[in-house]
TrEMBL record:
<dbReference type="InterPro" id="IPR036249">
    <property type="entry name" value="Thioredoxin-like_sf"/>
</dbReference>
<dbReference type="InterPro" id="IPR010987">
    <property type="entry name" value="Glutathione-S-Trfase_C-like"/>
</dbReference>
<dbReference type="InterPro" id="IPR004045">
    <property type="entry name" value="Glutathione_S-Trfase_N"/>
</dbReference>
<dbReference type="Pfam" id="PF13417">
    <property type="entry name" value="GST_N_3"/>
</dbReference>
<protein>
    <submittedName>
        <fullName>Putative GST-like protein YibF</fullName>
    </submittedName>
</protein>
<feature type="domain" description="GST N-terminal">
    <location>
        <begin position="1"/>
        <end position="78"/>
    </location>
</feature>
<dbReference type="InterPro" id="IPR036282">
    <property type="entry name" value="Glutathione-S-Trfase_C_sf"/>
</dbReference>
<dbReference type="Pfam" id="PF13410">
    <property type="entry name" value="GST_C_2"/>
</dbReference>
<feature type="domain" description="GST C-terminal">
    <location>
        <begin position="84"/>
        <end position="201"/>
    </location>
</feature>
<dbReference type="InterPro" id="IPR040079">
    <property type="entry name" value="Glutathione_S-Trfase"/>
</dbReference>
Length: 201
């Protein structure tokens, strides 16, 4: 399998972490949606990353369908999202919070870096930043231990760490000092695992 995209994208990174945790071998092509736009669009007409090229030539696009496929390969015992029941719903809710934080913080990043300062919409930036912080705050209050959904590491933890790392790397001033202490402690725990440490953006 070939993963398309750079780990600076939290969406790509959550796939890279998952591949490593599940022990699935892969190559990675470090394509950018800006510098390598044509190459990315040849794989995904939307010009978005990540994409995952399978050995038979099929291309999976967007992190959600890719991760669903990886869980299918891994089987229900190893899958990073439980297959059914309240445990599955809890993990998917936590993942949705993390994805919301990713999406809004990425929108802030694009607005701040690609649009001239005098053209930036500050009210919109503030709203996106508030939404990203709210998502992370909800994850911080999730209340389970040692992982967000309980005893087992799940996609919720992977996605939460990817979201927090993206913000800390590209817009650290978005988060007040001391923000989300439980989530930061969870990140430290996750970084004891090579899958997290080796994919750091």
């Amino acid at each position: 399998m070939i993963l398309i995209g750079r780990n600076t994208s939290p969406f790509v990174r959550r796939v890279a972490i998952s591949l490593r945790l599940l022990g699935l071998p892969y190559e990675q092509r470090l394509l950018s949606t800006v510098a390598d736009r044509a190459a990315v669009q040849a794989i995904n007409p939307l010009g978005r990353i990540p994409a995952l090229l399978l050995e038979d030539g099929e291309a999976l696009i967007d992190s959600g369908p890719i991760l669903d496929y990886l869980d299918e390969l891994a089987g229900p015992e190893k899958a990073l999202v439980p297959p059914a029941g309240p445990e599955r719903r809890r993990v998917l809710k936590l993942v949705a919070l993390a994805l919301g934080a990713m999406e809004k913080s990425l929108a802030c990043y694009v607005e701040r870096t690609l649009r001239p300062a005098d053209k930036q919409h500050q009210d919109l930036l503030n709203r996106f930043a508030d939404q990203a912080r709210a998502g992370l705050a909800a994850l911080d209050q999730a209340g389970a231990a040692p992982w967000l959904a309980g005893e087992r590491l799940t996609q919720a933890d992977i996605s939460a760490v990817a979201a927090l790392d993206f913000i800390d790397a590209f817009w650290p001033e978005m988060l007040p000092q001391g923000f989300a202490p439980r989530l930061r402690a969870l990140r430290q725990q996750a970084y004891a695992l090579p899958a997290f440490a080796e994919t750091r953006p």
